[in-house]
Design goal:
The protein is an alpha/beta fold. The chain has helices at 15-29, 41-48, 52-64, 88-95, 116-127, 132-136, 141-157, 173-184, 199-207, 224-232, 254-266, 288-291, 322-332, 338-349, 352-375, 396-405, 436-450, 456-460; strands at residues 68-71, 75-78, 103-104, 167-170, 190-194, 211-215, 217-218, 221-222, 237-240, 270-274, 296-301, 313-316, 385-389, 408-409, 425-429. The protein folds into 3 domains: 8-82, Arc Repressor Mutant, subunit A, CATH 1.10.10.10; 88-113 and 354-460, Aspartate Aminotransferase, domain 1; 116-350, Type I PLP-dependent aspartate aminotransferase-like (Major domain) (Aspartate Aminotransferase, domain 2), CATH 3.40.640.10.
């Protein structure tokens, strides 16, 4: 067992938090190496002159952050950062775990019936078509042609108008992201993203052996000077959700989009712009693609605007990289799920997809308005979630744990975190609760917690 004894005098804030920061700092410095057995709660509490509950709270939060791992009957051990999952796997473990009686605010998904009203009739039409057997077979170029045309139409609706020959169809945005990383970078390259980003992108970067670095943000999103600094240090690619960012909901101004485009040109870097939430803010500034079309890959999907079940994504690509990108997509799947893409094509061409997107936008407006009213936050933009900045004594992990004890499920903040974000916060979905009454109930729990005058330490020791 380690005789580890941190100096808490150099850390501010609650004692439990100081212990967590000391664990993190000593891991980075090599003082605490993977596999080290930590002192028992009682032993460390006695030597630090704090309560056993304070040490227990510190160890619990360190476990939540992936710094420590408790093993029944053996003790608590320092984890190996290289084996730590802090991306999509960690997020999904919480977001999709069934918890009877728990209000789910962990998943950003379309509200209502998940688009069944739109997809059901299209599936019924598809079942009666004489070419159904062909659609169910292996399909490559011939059928994909009309799907690209539908994708071209959908992209133009989001302000990413490109010729049809610059559009590629993929089986969802996750496949598009993996293909983009494989096409635009090499193993070991550095990739930039917002300091809080989509967990699926984090997992894709890790899978392909690249290094992900977080870029500092403020209330308006990415800070262009920080993006340029990252490019200057050798980063080859920036991934950003410029409109209604996940999870912070920020939207980049036109000036910032132009500045980021200039930085990419200056350093010969590329940008992957995710338009997944563009439909929520149709009057947002023009896509970065408009300002740097030769080095921006813009992708969009129907998963939030229509339904997650179609697994359909469209990418607008610079001509110079499209052949390599298409090769990457082909390596990931020999053939696309054509029946699903055919349904997407039908919905786009007859206007149903546009109607579904508008329904989702209006519902998001109503749910966000309710959140603003209960949480006392003004000028919230339409989004599938709210972002709640944390201030001491609250930390995101403590807030999420206490919300869970009060039957509200929230996603782990560190599943979105890249590097070490300079600010802490919590994402709460407003579209996951099944109705406005349930949403209001969950929001009141969060408001009560946020404004609680009692220290979270006192509630958990």
């Amino acid at each position: 067992m380690s005789n580890w004894l941190p100096d808490l005098s150099v850390h501010s804030g609650p004692k439990y938090r100081a212990i967590v920061e000391a664990i993190s700092g000593d891991m980075a410095a090599g003082v605490l190496v993977p596999g080290t057995r930590m002192p028992t709660h009682r032993d460390l509490a006695w030597r630090l002159k704090v309560t056993v509950g304070t040490v227990a709270r510190a160890y619990a939060e360190a476990e939540h952050l992936g710094l420590l791992s408790g093993e029944v009957g053996r003790g608590t051990f320092v984890t190996d950062p290289a084996k730590r999952e802090s991306g999509l796997g960690q997020y999904l473990a919480v977001a999709w775990a069934p918890h009877p009686g728990i209000i789910n605010m962990a998943v950003n998904r379309p509200s209502g019936d998940q688009g069944a009203w739109a997809v059901g009739p299209a599936l019924a039409q598809l079942a009666k078509r004489p070419d159904l057997s062909q659609l169910l077979s292996y399909n490559l170029e011939v059928v994909a042609q009309r799907h690209r045309a539908a994708g071209c139409k959908w992209l133009a609706r989001e302000g990413a108008a490109v010729p049809e020959e610059q559009v590629t169809v993929t089986a969802g945005s996750q496949q598009a992201l993996v293909a983009a990383i494989a096409t635009l970078t090499r193993p070991g390259d550095t990739i930039l993203a917002e300091e809080y980003t989509y967990p699926g992108f984090k997992s894709a970067v890790q899978l392909l052996g690249r290094s992900l670095v977080g870029v500092m943000m403020d209330d308006e999103g990415l800070i262009p000077d920080e993006v340029e600094r990252g490019f200057a240090k050798g980063a080859r690619l920036l991934y950003t959700t410029a409109t209604v960012q996940n999870p912070t909901t920020s939207t980049l101004s036109e000036d910032r989009r132009r500045a980021i485009a200039r930085a990419a040109r200056r350093y010969d870097a590329y940008i992957v712009e995710d338009g997944v939430h563009r439909f929520l803010e149709p009057n947002a500034p023009e896509s970065i693609l408009v300002h740097a079309p030769e080095r921006t890959l813009y992708l969009t999907t129907l998963s939030k605007s229509v339904t997650p079940g179609l697994r359909c994504s469209f990418s607008a690509l610079p001509p110079a990289i499209k052949p390599r990108y298409d090769q990457s997509v082909g390596a990931l799947s020999l053939a696309l799920p054509v029946p699903l893409l055919e349904v997407a094509c039908m919905l786009i061409n007859d206007g149903t997809a546009q109607e579904a997107a508008e329904r989702q936008r209006r519902d998001a407006v109503a749910r966000i308005a309710l959140a603003g009213e209960i949480l006392g936050i003004e000028n919230l933009r339409p989004a599938f979630n709210v972002w709640l900045p944390m201030t001491l004594p609250w930390t995101s992990s403590a807030f999420i744990a206490e919300a869970a004890r009060r039957a509200v499920s929230l996603p782990p903040t560190d599943s979105f975190a890249v590097s070490r974000p300079h600010l802490d916060g919590v994402r709460a979905s407003v579209t996951a609760p099944p109705d406005m009454e349930t949403l209001a109930q969950a929001l009141r729990v969060l408001a009560e917690l946020r404004d609680c005058p009692i220290s979270p330490v006192a509630m958990t020791v």
